[in-house]
Design brief:
Layout (H helix, E strand, L loop, with lengths): L6 E6 L7 E7 L2 E8 L2 E6 L14 E7 L7 E11 L6 E3 L18 E4 L2 E5 L1
Antiparallel strand pairs: 1-9, 2-3, 3-4, 5-6, 6-7, 8-9
């Protein structure tokens, strides 16, 4: 590609049931690939806190408190948050944003299904 990126086939779409994730190797990179209700997302398998294996963590939601809800705790983003198994930092899968530190945002990779194959661009 003109911008220096390449496309890779990483798996069959059937290998990623809805609401599942796994780590794949693409070149020398380990990348977490997530299927959220049929939409695919990809993040580095690397938590910037202490280089923990982020994408091996649990996917769930998170507790939030918003002004418009009088700061009552509520469960949000169910199925959209991956938690680093080492120290518990949470990241929004769809954006790569760290939920605890607004200045930390992970790189995301374009990932899609084409002809029954999951493809990624790196």
């Amino acid at each position: 590609m003109a911008d220096g990126t390449r496309e890779y086939i990483i798996a069959k779409a059937a290998d990623f049931p809805a609401n599942s994730h796994r780590v794949v190797e693409v070149g020398r990179r380990k990348i977490g690939v997530f299927n959220l209700d049929g939409q695919f997302f990809a993040l580095p398998n690397l938590c910037p806190h202490q280089l923990g294996p982020l994408a091996t963590g649990k996917v769930s939601g998170t507790l939030t408190a918003r002004q418009e809800n009088d700061y009552r705790l509520e469960w949000t983003m169910e199925g959209e948050v991956v938690t680093c198994p080492w120290h518990g930092l949470e990241y929004h899968i769809t954006s790569g944003q760290c939920l605890a530190y607004s200045e930390i945002k992970l790189r995301t990779y374009p990932v899609w299904v084409e002809d029954g194959q999951v493809k990624i661009r790196i």
